[in-house]
Amino acid sequence: MLIGPIGCGKTTLMQRLKNEKIQYDKTQTLEFSANFIDTPGEYMEHHNMMRYLRTTSTDADIVVLLQSATDRRLIYPAGFCSAFPKPTLGLVTKIDKATADDIEYSRKLLLTAGVKKVIPISSMTGQNIDQVREALKND
């Protein structure tokens, strides 16, 4: 299950992992596909909708939090992952458009949210996507 704010790269990551053509596609509602649950960014940005994320996570094997390296907002509160009875993984996205400081800042935000492992990625260039595939297999 992919969780993150609007524009953080959830759908693009899913397209990359499924070897599909990368194209912008705004997720309007929960989208279930083979091995993925893509969630709308509004579910994370509007706190009254977070309950849908918790409920939907029961259908997931792993919860993946995405934090764009180009977005310095605090999206996930400290300990956010404790809301999910599933393993969690953190991905810093859009690293091809960010500085090393931006990437490190985003990594720290994800660790504070409670993920155990963070992988910096670029879905556009494919950087570190193989690490994501491996992490998803093992969790």
From TrEMBL:
Matching CDD domains: Ras_like_GTPase
Any one GO BP annotation for this protein: biogenic amine metabolic process
Keyword Nucleotide-binding belongs to the record: yes
Molecular function terms from GO: ATP binding
Protein family according to the UniProt entry: Belongs to the EutP/PduV family.
UniProt-listed NCBIfam families: EutP
Record-linked PANTHER family: PROTEIN YOEF
Protein's recorded name: Ethanolamine utilization protein, EutP
Source organism per UniProt: Limosilactobacillus panis DSM 6035
